[in-house]
# Entry
Amino acid sequence: MPRVVTGRFRGAVLQAPEGDKTRPTTDKVKEALFSIIQAYVPDSEFLDLFAGSGQIGIEALSRGAKRVTLVERSGQAASVIGKNIAKIRMDGSDELRFYKKSVAQALEALGQEGEKFDIIFMDPPYKDVPLRLDEATKLISGFGMLNEDGMLIVEHDKDCEIPEELNGLKNVRSCSYGLTVLTFFKDINIGG
# Structure
């Protein structure tokens, strides 16, 4: 079971969807991720795509993000997210929003509303990373959804080839943790 590592919800044990349709980010990768981005999380606008249990977004909120937006289409995962939001007593809060939509639908809606984010994290099914990353970066770049110094972070497996540049976003860093890799993108047009 995923748990919140630190911050105001520290120690909260979260539920995870059953079965193999979702693959929760491991504690090792989650701790590495937040070690890298810890200076950027406080007061950030944080978007968690393919949210699964919502654990990454909830961890960001626990660590001081101003507002977190979770996006997950799966009915089973959405039910788990709802329980996890209730567990940390954030249902109905302006600080935590949840969209039960596809990532493309959610990005389209958020982009049309003029939403911008400091951190966008996406953890699609590993086999779908190239397609989902292409789809997401077109919308993120097209709507200018990253703030200055904003970043898109993609979790994928080590065998996935990630381009140096994709739809106006530049691959600026990759960190490997066993079979898992975190790749960081910045918007070329805003000093990335």
Summary: The domain at 27-190 is CATH 3.40.50.150 (Rossmann fold).
